[in-house]
Amino acid sequence: MTEKHPNYSSYVYCANNPVNLIDPDGRDWFVNDQGFYLWSNNSSVSGFSYAGNVLPPSVSRYQILEQKNGRLFHKNTDDWLNRNINSYLGTNLNEKLPYDRAQESFNDELLTTAVGVGIGKLGGLAFKALSRAGGSLWNVEGGWLARGFVYEEMLGGNLAKGYPVIDKFVKGVATSIKTLDLRTKGYQNSSKVLSVLKKYIKKLEAFEGVNRGGINTTGGKITEKVLEVGVPKGASAAQVEAIQAAVKYGEEVGIKVNVRIVK
Predict the structure, then answer these.
(1) pLDDT tens for each residue of 166-192
(2) CdiA toxin EC869-like domain: from which residue to which, for each copy (predicted)?
(3) Sheet of 168-170: strands edge to edge?
(4) Is the CB of residue 109 less than 8 Å from the CB of residue 99?
């Protein structure tokens, strides 16, 4: 979608660091069919589907909505007319532009994933696998192992195959990268979703680093641990609650959990 506020970063609200400085109030993002996002502490929002707790990098400020008195408004806009009326007359008109479905048209970026990584930016095998899958991570041939490999590439995994527990290590941040296909039969039971996520969190919590393949993460070199989880669109309210519980558990044990919706 074309940036409608080019003088502003999409991430002013989190100090231009959406990976490490996501709003810490327990809320999650929900997205509607036109690609507009709403921040909510509920497990479901009418007309919106769960979109993880990390805002996709391709989202512009204009696509971020807020709800007031049952109505939706574009959070990062200014209704100058209402603002001036309020200033002169002391009224309390809303100073944000209202969201109107009938007037909005959403144009998808060319073959871009929900985490904002165009498949053209992927290299080698990952690019070929995602291309054959029509740009959808969940259609990648080869099961969860192949899907995991592609997702690691999408998020910049830089450790050799076989490196234990983590897939990326940059400036002290140790990141474990996972995918969870919530559409499969086993995950229809939300307790299974929570148990698997907690297993990933506990494994990362216990990891103290290794020296392998020229990458040494021992001796206090790890300053932060992050679990990145890619999930498909369409999570149920029960699955969202399980994810929210896992994120909270991660906070309690010092693990940052980022959940992203991936096409």
Answers:
(1) 999 999 999 999 999 999 999 999 999
(2) 158-259
(3) 168-170, 173-179, 224-231, 255-261
(4) no
